[in-house]
Protein 1
Amino acid sequence: QVHLVESGGGLVQAGGSLKLSCAASGRTGSSYAMGWFRQGPGKEREFVAAISWSGGSWSDTRTYYADSVKGRFTASRDNAKNTVYLQMNSLKPEDTAVYYCNADSLRQQVVTGNANYWGQGTQVTVSS
């Protein structure tokens, strides 16, 4: 089992920044892909970003982003801490959502939302 706990959500004005964290515990491994989804009011859950690492050099790290957040959000991970981060800049009111962290041994499962493990979510509210 893998347990994921998100933190860092809050209220911010449009144009501001927030950094989300997702700490993993349990049967984790640095080869796990981890990612972020979000669900806004009245909307379906959607992919935001994912990060994977093959276990080789740091240059093997791969990141993936939804078009709506490219250039504004950056995913990173600290394998020593089993933690993944989502730096969110230039936030917009439409970024308001509950943000969920997920993890799976298969990157594709993370990106498609079929990951085995999910956190409880953290609320991000962007005021205009």
Note: Helices lie at 107-112.
Protein 2
Amino acid sequence: QVQLVESGGGLVQAGGSLRLSCAASGLTFRWYDMAWFRQAPGKEREFVVYISTSGSFTYYEDSVKGRFTVSRDNAKNTVYLQMNSLKAEDTGVYYCAADLNRGPSLRVGAEEYDYWGQGTQVTVSS
């Protein structure tokens, strides 16, 4: 049974930092492309960042470029999201997602990912 468990969310002031983690189990982690999505109240889930199986390729949504950094540790079956210079508009529930790699293919649509975590709340106060 595949499980993705996010942690590290919380309440932070604007300009602050948080580091999210997503621990995976029940799958061969190094075979899976990973992504982070977020969902603000009353809005649709939106793409934040993608990381390839080896971590050699990443792709960020424009509003987080230069502020967020994604990484993964395949030995620990974990993907991370370092979030700096947080803004009020970064508030939302953050989800990690996994999809079996089928060749070089960037995927930014939520419907393209097979497995999801339960989410972790990030609240940025202004």
Note: Residues 50 and 59 are 5 Å apart (CA to CA).
Protein 3
Amino acid sequence: QVQLVESGGGLVQAGGSLRLSCAASGRTFSTYAMTWFRQAPGKEREFVAAIWRDTMWSGLSTNYADSVKGRFTISRDNAKNTVYLQMNSLKPEDTAVYYCAASPRYSTKQSEYDYWGQGTQVTVSS
């Protein structure tokens, strides 16, 4: 069982930055793929970024949605059981509730994730 708690959301002007955190419980945190999704008003939840240990080369791999590449950075600190999402050059279209999720295997599909946080609101003003 994994419990996830997000923090760090808020109101920021366009061009600004925020760092989201997702604290996880559970001894097996380091083995889980950790992913950020977001859901804007009136839209479906979408994939934002993921970080996982790639068994092919035993290193950390990351993947980003095209809409956030070059602006967002996902990272993790296994000692703190925490995953981060550094968001720079924020745009009004980044406004959404951001959720972190955990799965034993990497996927961009939210149906593959068993564990979810409660979400944190990010609002970017123009």
Note: The mean pLDDT is 95.
